[in-house]
Amino acid sequence: MSSLLGIDNGLTVTKAVIFDADGSQLSVARRRVPQSMPHARWVERDMAGLWQATAEAIQEAIALSGRPASDIKAVAATAHGDGLYLLDNDRRPLGPGILSLDSRAGEIVDRWSRGSVFAEALALTGQVPHASSPSSLLVWLREHDPERFSRVAHILACKDWLRFCLTGTIGTDLTEASTSFTNVRTQSHVPEAMRIFGLEALFEALPPMMHSADIVGYVTTDAAALSGLAEGTPVACGLHDVTASALGMGGHEEGVVSIVAGTYSINEIVSTEPRVDLRWFCRNAIDLGRWNNMSISPASTANYDWFLDTLCCPEQDEAKRTGGSIHEMLAAEIDIALGRPSTILFHPYLFGSPYGNAASASFLGLHGWHDRGDMLKAVLEGIVFNHRTHVEALRDGFAVREVRLTGGGSRNPAFAQMFADVLNVPVIVTSTDEAAAFGAALCAGAAVGLFASPQQGARAVSKTSHEYLPDAARNAVFEDRFSLYCRIAESLKPQWLEIERLAGQSIEGAA
Asked: Carbohydrate kinase FGGY N-terminal domain: from which residue to which, for each copy (predicted)?
C-alpha cells in the first residue's frame, strides 16, 4: 500500500492529512497554533511552537490512518503565503513568525503608494506590495527593529520553515518565491526587485527555488522522532496554500476561477502569459511559463470566526463540552434569517479589504428588532460580496468558463448557494474536504512518480461533489444589495481615514 502526507498550515490551525494513492482521505489531525497580538496590527506566532504542533498532528494522523509510517511514500507542506519567517546565521528562528494577517507595515505601504514604488513594483514583479508582503515587513523591521534586521540570514515563508524542520534543508518553490522579489516575466529572483524597496543587501538571504514536486530532502532523525514519520521519507518542495487549494480542487488551469473562502478571500485563475493589473497579483503558477493571477484580501471567513469567538461564547463553550459543532448549532438561526428580508449590510473588513489599510468593518441598517441570525446572515453575505468584487476584476482580464469553490464555508449548502446566486453562475464544490493538503499531497505523489505531474494527479482523482445553480429571483435581490454595498464602501473611503485618526485620541487625556 502507498499513502501520501499533505501538511496544511493555516493562520490558526495546522493540519496533517494522509491520503491513499487513489486520492481518498485516510485520516486528518489538527492542532490549533496560538497567535500573539502584542500590539495593534501585529499578528505573530512562535515558530518552534508551530513545528511542535505540526509534529503532533502528524503523529496523530499516522495513528488514525491505521497504517504504519513506512506506508507514507512522500510528504509535502503547504501554508499561508506572505508574512515572514526568518532564520539567523545559525539557522535558528529570528523572532516569531509574522502572519499574513499582520498589518503593522500599513503606513509603509501607504507611503509607497504615494511615490514611485507601486508603479515600479507592478511593472517588474507583477504586483504591488501590501501590508503583509515580505517586502513591506522587512522594511518595517529595518526601520523599527534594526538589530533583528541586521541578523537576517534566511528569508522563508511558513511552509519553507516546516520543510526545514522536516529535512534541515533551506529553499522555496516557484509559487512562494513570487510574493515580492521575482521578475514577473522571467519568474526568477532578481536583485532589481529588492532594490525597489531598498533591500538589495538581503538578496543572498533569499532561498533557492525549485519545482513544487521536486524532492528537496528526507525526513531527518530528529524530525522522525518528534513526528512519528519514518526516517528518510522523501519530502517534496511544496507550494503556497492558495495554489495548493486550486490544485486540490482541480482548478489550477486556464478558464477556471478557483475561490477559497477561508481566512482570506482568495480568487484566482491561471494564464499562459503574464497579465499585470493593480486589481490582482500576477504570481508564478506551479510550472514555468504559467502564471497564477490572484485577486485577494484578508476579508473572508475570518469575519465569521471573529463573530463566533466574540458574540457566541456560550455556544462555543457548549460545543466544546458536548463535542458538537458550533456551526450546526447556529445553522437554524441562519436559515431562518435567510428566509426573510433584512436591511443589514456588513462590510467584512475586520482584518483588511480591497480598499486599502484604513478600511474597517461595519454593520449598517441594524435595528433593535434584528437578532443574531440576521447579523450572521449579513456577515456571510458580506463575505460573498467581497469575493464577488475580486471575481469581477478577474472576469475583466480573463476568459472564465467555470467557478470552483472550497474552504470551510463551502461545506455549508446555504453558503455555497449564496455564491451561485451572488455571482450568477454555476458554482462547483468538489468532494475534497482538505483541498490545500490534497494539493500538497499531489506534489508529494508526483515527486516519487505516483503521478506524472501534480495536475494529472488532480484530474485522475478529483470528483465533483455538487453543482449549485443560480436562482434568478435571489440573484435580482442580491444585485440590488451588492450595488448598495459597493456604493457605501466607496462613500466610506474618506471616513475610514477619519475613523483611524480617532485611535490616537484619549478620552481620559482630553478630560
From this structure: 4-248
Give the total number of structural domains in the chain.
2
Domain range for 352 is: 256-400+475-505
DSSP string, 169-229: ---EEHHHHTTTSB-TTT-SB-HHHHHTTT-GGGGGGSPPEE-TTSEEEE--HHHHHHH-P
Tell which residue, 387, 434, 437, has the closest CA to residue 415. Answer: 387
Rounded Cα–Cα distance for residues 207 and 216 (Å): 12
CB-CB contact of 157 with 47 (8 Å): no
Written as nine digits, the cell of 72 is 507514507
| CB atoms inside a 10 Å sphere around CB 507 | 6
- What whole-number distance in Å separates Cα of residue 316 and Cα of residue 50? 24
Q: Which helix (H) or strand (E) holds 438?
A: helix 435-447
Mean pLDDT on 89-101: 96
| CATH number of the domain bearing residue 159 | 3.30.420.40
pLDDT the model gives residue 511 = 43
Q: Residue 106 in contact with residue 131, Cβ under 8 Å? A: yes
pLDDT-derived band at 501, boundaries 50, 70, 90: confident
Q: Does 180 reside within a domain? A: yes
From the centroid of its chain, how far is CA 275? Answer: 22
Does 311 lie in the same domain as 189? no
> What is the Cα 434 distance to its own chain's centre?
13
Q: DSSP characters for 261-288?
A: ESSSEEEEEEESS---BTTBEEEE-SST
The pTM of the full predicted model, rounded to 2 decimals, is: 0.89
* Nearest-angstrom CA–CA distance, 222 and 166: 8
Is the Cβ–Cβ distance between 91 and 170 less than 8 Å? yes
Burial class (CB within 10 angstroms; exposed 0-12, middle 13-18, buried 19+) of 54: buried
Residue 424 lies in a domain: no
What CA–CA distance (Å, rounded) separates 181 from 206?
Answer: 9
